[in-house]
């Protein structure tokens, strides 16, 4: 009559032992699972960080290439200015004195404009500026060049008026010089705009811009100063 209770007790003991064994296995598996997850994170996170770093390095490489491009174009303007200063000075003793004088003045101004950038400016680095700062500077540069291009059209028209309506040789020589100088600078500024637009288009292929239309500024800094944020498209 007592056998069923013995069997029941043994069954309960085996059940309890099974529970304890499962608990031991769980206690062993949980640390192992955490170790595996941690190892996965250690391998995944550096890859993402490295990918971000590579993309940022590529953006800075594109920026440095753009700065080399701008510097080459500035040397062209500097050379044009030097040519006008030299030939203008040579004409001061000729019958084309006024034409040479105007060329000399334009040449000196052009050389003065690019001299600080060519000889006295330092290129920004990632440690000194954010990439957003460099893009914002490029956009500001593009706007300035666009304004200069429109001014050059005005110079050409003014020179044409001086040449056509001038009642003296001096005014006509001045007009001829203004047409030449304005024409060259117009072509020069159009080239600058072309290269600047190409650079910004290349950047937008890698970057998503966030614009706040109601403020007319870019998100990222205080509203008192135009600012810019971007995220790299991976």
The Rg value, from CA coordinates, equals 36 Å
**What's the mean pLDDT score?**
74
How is the main sheet built? 2 strands, antiparallel
Counting DSSP H or I runs of 4 or more residues, the number of helices is: 4
Number of strands: 4
Strand order of the largest sheet: 1-4
Q: Could you tell me how far the N terminus lies from the C terminus, measured between alpha carbons in angstroms?
A: 77 Å
The succession of helices and strands, N to C, reads: HHHHEEEE
Helix/strand/pairing category = mainly alpha
What's the number of structural domains? 1
Shape descriptor: elongated
Describe the structure.
This protein is mostly helical and 234 residues long. The chain has one domain (62-232). It has helices spanning 3-91, 97-119, 131-165, 169-204, and strands spanning 207-209, 211-212, 217-218, 230-232. The strands form two sheets. A two-stranded antiparallel sheet has the order 1-4. It has a two-stranded antiparallel ribbon with strand order 2-3. The termini are far apart. Mean pLDDT is 74; it is low at 40-52 and 210-234.
Task: Characterize this entry briefly.
The protein has 234 residues and is mainly α. Helix content is 78%, strand content 4%. It has helices at 3-91, 97-119, 131-165, 169-204; strands at 207-209, 211-212, 217-218, 230-232.
Task: Name the descriptors.
mainly alpha, single chain, two-stranded antiparallel ribbon, 234 residues, 4 helices, disordered C terminus, 4 strands, 78% helix, 4% strand, elongated
